[in-house]
């Protein structure tokens, strides 16, 4: 895949962020696991939500290997999805995220602002993957549990439909808090308190450019207003 426009610029930003990150510290993402006690952790919040993908109106599950052979789709191309979560201050980074098979993501994260970067390209392949920022997230300080909502990325190829971004058009929904709590507690056990709501930021107004400082400033300005400029 050739990069162009925003994806090329964001690739340059991501490389610079990763270089900075690797020179500081690179750590594995810490996932919550079923059966573990969800006790509050000093300096970290339990962040939970879900990432969903639709390709030509079919939901796909890139982390469920059994779906890779669905004859309905050109699976090798359509189902490839890779995401990384990087703090905007680049003091630490993550390896590629591995949500549950249905896209549920439950992480322990330090407070701060994060960028979710995505690609359809195989990062282990011989060609440098094309990446783009696909979402932003703010983990507020002083809130031990955070509900980030459900991101949906949809590539719609009906007449007039098109996808300019890495995974197509992005949108975010939130379940009623009681329902969201029931779902996460069914997997992980009782939460140690009520969650704060701090949802993913997606949409056409996500920042782009070739200057890291401005990229971070634009991202934080968007998060400051609750991503109100995005759909």
Name the features.
231 residues, 4 helices, 7-stranded mixed beta sheet, 3-stranded antiparallel beta sheet, globular, alpha+beta
Structural account:
- The protein has 231 residues and is an alpha+beta fold.
- The chain has helices at residues 6-24, 75-78, 177-188, 212-224; strands at 30-31, 45-55, 58-60, 82-87, 104-109, 112-119, 132-139, 145-155, 169-173, 196-197.
- A hairpin with a 2-residue loop joins strand 2 and strand 3 (58-60).
- The chain has one domain.
- It is globular.
- The longest helix is centred in the N-terminal third of the chain and has 19 residues, at 6-24.
- The chain starts with 5 loop residues before the first helix and ends in a 7-residue tail after the last helix.
- Strands 1, 2, 3, 5, 8, 9 and 10 form a seven-stranded mixed sheet that branches.
- It is 21% helix and 27% strand.
Our estimate of the beta-strand percent is 25-35%
Using only C-alpha atoms, the radius of gyration works out to 17 Å
The parts where pLDDT drops under 50 for at least 5 residues are 1-5, 7-12, 15-26, 68-77
The count of strands amounts to 10
Q: How many angstroms does the end-to-end distance come to?
A: 27 Å
Order of helices and strands: HEEEHEEEEEEHEH
Number of domains: 1
Q: Which structural class should the secondary elements be placed in?
A: alpha+beta
